[in-house]
Amino acid sequence: MRDFISRNPLLFVFLIAGYAFLYLPIISLIVYSFNESRLVTVWSGFSTKWYGELMNNGPLLNAAWLSVKIGALNATIAVILGTLAALALVRFRKSRGHGTLGVMVTAPLVMPEIIIGLSLLLFFIALEDLIGWPAGRGQTTILIAHATFSMAYVTVIVQSRLAHMDPSIEEAALDLGARPARVFFTITLPMIFPALAAGWLLAFTLSLDDLVIASFVSGPGSTTLPMVVYSSVRLGVSPQINALASLIIALVSIAVLVASVIMYRSEKVRQDA
Amino acid sequence: MSQSRNQSTESWSAPDAEPVVRIEKVTKRFGEIYAVDDLSLDIHRGEFFSLLGASGCGKTTLLRMLAGFETPTAGRIFIDGQDMTEVPAYLRPVNMMFQSYALFPHMTVAQNIAYGLKSDPPDREGRSARVSEMMAMVKIEALATRKPHQLSGGQRQRVALARALARHPKILLLDEPLGALDKKLREQTQFELVNLQERLGITFIVVTHDQEEAMTMSSRIALLKDGRIEQVDSPRRMYEFPSTRYAADFIGSINLFEGHVISHSNDMAVIHCEDTDSDIIVHHSQPLASGMPVTVAVRPEKMRVNTTIEADQNQLHGEIKEIAYLGDVSIYHVDLPGGKRIQFTQPNMLALAEQPLTWGQEVQLTWHPNGCGVLTQ
Amino acid sequence: MTLLQKLIPKNHQLIVAIPWLWLAIFFVLPFLFILKISLSEPQLAMPPYQDWIREFEDGLLTITLNFGNYQLMFEDDLYLQALLGSLKVAGISTLLCILTGYPIAYAITRAPLQFRMPFLMLIILPFWTSFLLRVYAWIGILKDNGLLNQLLMSTGIIDSPLQILHTPAAVYIGVVYSYLPFFVLPLYATLVRLDDTLLEAAADLGARPLRQFLTITLPQSVPGIAAGAMLVFIPVMGEFVIPDLLGGPGTLMLGKLLWTEFFNNKDWPVASSLAAILLVILIVPFVLLRHFEQKASEEER
User: Fold this and answer.
1) Which terminal CB of chain A, N or C, has fewer other CB atoms within 10 Å?
2) C281 pLDDT higher than 70
C-alpha cells in the first residue's frame, strides 16, 4: 500500500477525494441527527431526542412497516424471476425468446423510473377497466412494479455467477446418476446461492428506496416510506429525517458488511477450487 | 517410452467376443462441422483403451457421447449389448472423470464421493462403507472432511477418480486424466491408473492428446483425425507398424521417403526413392503392385552409424548438420546429398565430454529391412 | 448448449417463458398505453382522458386520435426548454462523472490486490443506502446557512453566503454524487481485465508512463467508459428527485416537467406524450449501451 501511494501520489489523492465526496454528506447526516437544535445545520449540543420523536411518529412507522413488507415480498419474487431469467439467458441460448428476453432484462436497469411508473399506472387502470383486476392501486400494484425492475438487477448478478460456473460440474452430477431436478437443487442452487442472497438484498433495498415508481402506482392507504420522507423533505430539512437516515445507514452497513464477508469467502472458495 | 502392461489377454483379437462398447457408424455434427464422422469402433471388456489425437479430432466429443452428454446425429452406441444412444447420462452404467475434475465445491470429499450413491447401496451403512472403501483405494482417507479448495491438484484427481468409481461403473471414462498434473506426478499416476484398472477389471476409456501417455497406459489406442479413425492397434504395433503417414508421424519421430515399388516377392519389397543413393529393401507381407507410389518409414533409432557395408542392410550417407544432446540419447540431423534432411538417434553409452560424432562429419547409416515399413496411405 | 435443455424440454421452455411473459406484460405492454393516452384528449374526470373509441347513441363507433399533445410539444417553448435542459444536465453530468470517475476506477485497479475489493466496496456502499436520503443530505450542506457556507464563511473565504441550493450547480453535484458508482463499476470491470503485460511491453519498447496510458490503457477502456456513460446518461434524462429537491425554478428537465404535468396539472395525455418522446430519445443511447456491454462480455470470453 505504501508502495502504491509513493508511486502514484496523484491517484491516491483522487481516491481519497472521491471517498470524501461520497462519504462526507452521509457523515454530516449522521452527525446532525444527534443535534439538539431543530435547525439541522446549527450545532447546539448532543441529543438523541429526534430518535425518540421518530419512534412516536405513527404515520412514518406505518409507512416504514409497509415498505419493509413490500420490500421483502418483492425481493423474493424478484429472486425467483431473476434466477429464471438468468438461467434462460445463460443456459438456453438457442431457445425461442432468448434475444428479446436479453433486451427486456437490460432495459429496466437504465429506464428512467418516471417512465416505468407512468406506463404501469396507465396499464393498471386500463387492465382494471378491462378485467376488473387489479382493483384499485395499492400494495399489489407497487409489488408488481417493484418486482419488474428489481428482477433485472437480480438477473445481472445471477447471470454473471452462472456464466462463470464450470459446466462440467453439473455434468458430473448427471453422470453420477442424479436427475436434472436433483442436479439443480443439490448442485446448481447451492453454488449460486451467494448470488441469490446478494440479489435478494439488492432487490429489497431497491424497493425500500423507490419513490418515483411507488408514487405513480400506489393508492390511498398505501403510502410507502420514501413517499413520507419526500413530503417531509419538501418542506425543508428535519432532524427526524436525519435520525431515520442514520438508522437506515446503520442497518444497511451491517447488512452489506455481513453479505460481503459471505460473498468474499465463497468467492475465495470458488477461486481456489 | 516402452509399454508397461501385460498383454496376455488380448480380448479384442477374439473374433466372436461381445464388445462392452460398440460404436456403430456414429456421426456428430455441430452446425456445419463434423466433430465425429461415420465412426465405428468396438471396445472390449477389461481394456485400457485410449482415444488419441490432436485437439479438434473429435475424441472428446466421442467420449461425451459415450457418457450421454451429447446425442449422436446419426448412428448407434451400444454399452454391454444395450442400445444407449438415447439414454440420458444419469441412467448409463458409465462414469466419467472430468478434465477439470468437476468436484462439487460446496461439498466435502466424502460427500463428493457419496453423491452418486443415492440409493445403491440401499442402507446408510453400506453407502458409508463404500465411501470409505473408495477413499482407501486411492489413499485419501485422511481428507474425508476437506473441501475441494483445500486439496492439492493430485489430491483432487484422486477424489475425482474415487467419485467416478464409487458407483462400480461398467466403464470408466477419463478425459485428459493427467492433464492438470505436473510431469513427475503424471508419470507416477500413469502407473497407478494402470494398476487400478488391472485390479478392478473395469474397462477404462481415456481421452488424451499425449502420445507417451497413451503408449504407457493403454492396451489399445485409437488414433483419431478429423472425426475418423486413422488406426486402432496396440501401442507396440502402432509404433512399429503405423498404417498411414499421419499415424507414423503422430506417434514418435520418423523419417519418410517417397518412392515407388520396383518389385515385391517373398515378403520383401524393393522400393526406389528419389532421395536415397540406392533402393530400399523392406519387409512387407501385404501384396504390393509394381510401380505403386509408396512411402518408406524409418524410425530414427533404427538407424546405425556403420563403417562397413553389409549386403542385407539398407544404407545411405550424409553429413551431420545439427546435434541435439538430450542426455540419454542424442538426435542427429543429417543432410543427404539430394538435400533431404533426416534424423537418427544414438544412445550416449560413454560419458565423454567430446561426442564421437560431430558437426560436418560424413556418416554412413544402415538399417535392417525389418526395421522399417511401407506406407501406402 | 447443455444437457438440461435436451432432457427437460418442457421445463426449459417454461424457464424462458415465465420471465419473458412477466416482462412482456408488465414492462413492454405498458409502453403501448403511454402511446395510447398520449394520443387522447384530456378531460376533467377520473381517469382524466377521453378514450379514442367513443360509442354514440346511434351505435356508431368513432375513433378519434388527438395529435394535439405532440403538437403542443413543438409549439410551447416550455417543453423544448425541458428537453434541452435534460440533455444539457445529462450530458454535462456524464462528462463530470467520466472526469471524476475515471481516476477513481483507475486508482482502484492500480491499488494492491488485497485493497481492491475493499476500495470497490466503499464505492458501492453508498449506493445501498437510500437515494432520497443521500440527495436530502446535500440540502443541509448546500443551503444558504448550510455546512458549506458556514465553512467558507468561518475560514473567511467569503463574507456573505453563496446561493448554491436551487441552482444548476446543485443539480450537477447531486447527479454526480448519486450516479458516480454506476460509472465507476463497469469501468473498473473493464480496466481490471486489461493485461498488465501489455503495459510492460509498451515500456519495454520505450514508452513513458503517460504514453503507456494514452496509447494502451485509454483506448482499451473505451467500452467501459461508454457503458458507464450510458448508465449515467439514460436515467439522468428522466431524473425527477434531484432537480426537484436541489434544483430551482429555473431547472427545467423532462422528468420534473412530466411529474408536474401528471400530479399537479393532472394532464395525463401531455405527461404521456412527454414520456413517449423521452422513450424515443433514449433508444439510441440504449442501443449503444447494449452494444458496448456485449462487446465487453465477448472480450471476456
Assistant:
1) N
2) yes
Query: Domain of C241: which CATH number?
Result: 1.10.3720.10
* Angstrom distance (rounded) from CA A165 to CA A187: 11
Residue B22's pLDDT is 95
C-alpha to C-alpha distance for B204 and B5, rounded to whole angstroms = 14
Closest CA to A212 of A129, A124, A149: A149
Does pTM surpass 0.90? no
Most C-contacting residue of A96, A115, A186 (CB-CB within 10 A), to test interface: A115
List the grid coordinates of C120: 470497490
Mean pLDDT rounded to a whole number for chain C = 85
Residue B123 CB-half CA count within 13 A: 3
Q: Does residue C79 form part of some domain?
A: yes
- In chain A, where the domains are located: 58-272
A touches which chains (3+ CB pairs under 8 A)? B, C
pLDDT greater than 60 at residue C55: no
Give chain C's domain count.
1
pLDDT tens for each residue of A132-190: 888 888 899 999 999 999 999 999 999 989 988 898 999 999 999 999 889 999 999 99
Amino acid at B159: V
Give domain status of residue C237, yes or no: yes
User: Which of C2, C18, C27, C258 is most worth mutating to test chain A (most A CB atoms within 10 A of its CB)?
Assistant: C27
| Gap from C3 CA to chain B (nearest CA, Å) | 6
ipTM: 0.89
Residue C49 inside a domain? The answer is no
- Give domain status of residue C244, yes or no: yes
Name the closest residue on chain C to residue B89, using Cα atoms.
Answer: C3
| Residue in chain B nearest C8 by alpha carbon | B88
The torsion of the CA quartet C106, C110, C115, C119, rounded to 10 degrees, works out to -10
| Cα distance between residue B347 and residue B328, in whole Å | 6
Please say whether the beta carbons of B261 and B273 come within 8 A: no
Contact C138, C246 (CB under 8 A): yes
With contact defined as beta carbons under 8 Å apart, do B251 and B211 qualify?
A: yes
Contact of C40 with A126, CB cutoff 8 Å: no
- Nearest by Cα to B368 from B281, B268, B249: B281
Question: For position B49, what pLDDT does the model report?
Answer: 96
What CA–CA distance (Å, rounded) separates B53 from B228?
Answer: 10
Q: Is some CB atom of chain A closer than 8 A to the CB atom of B99?
A: yes
Q: What is the 3-state secondary structure (H, E, C) of chain B?
A: CCCCCCCCCCHHHCCCCCCCEEEEEEEEEECCEEEEEEEEEEECCCCEEEEECCCCCCHHHHHHHHHCCCCCCEEEEEECCEECCCCCHHHCCEEEECCCCCCCCCCCHHHHHHCCCCCCCCCHHHHHHHHHHHHHHCCCHHHCCCCHHHCCHHHHHHHHHHHHHCCCCCEEEEECCCCCCCHHHHHHHHHHHHHHHHHHCCEEEEEECCHHHHHHHCCEEEEEECCEEEEEECHHHHHHCCCCHHHHHHCCCCEEEEEEEEEEECCEEEEEECCCCCCEEEECCCCCCCCCEEEEEECHHHCEECCCCCCCCEEEEEEEEEEEECCCEEEEEEECCCCCEEEEEEECCCCCCCCCCCCCCEEEEEECHHHEEEECC
Distance CA B326, CA B348 (A): 9
Q: How far is C174 from chain A (nearest CA, A)?
A: 11
- C180 contacts A17 by C-beta, under 8 angstroms: no
What homologous superfamily is domain A58-272 in, according to CATH? Answer: MetI-like (1.10.3720.10)
Domain membership of residue C171 as a residue range: 72-300
For chain B, which domains are there? 11-244 (3.40.50.300), 253-375 (2.40.50.140)
pLDDT surpasses 50 at B6: no
Contact list, B89 vs chain C (CB under 8 Å): 3
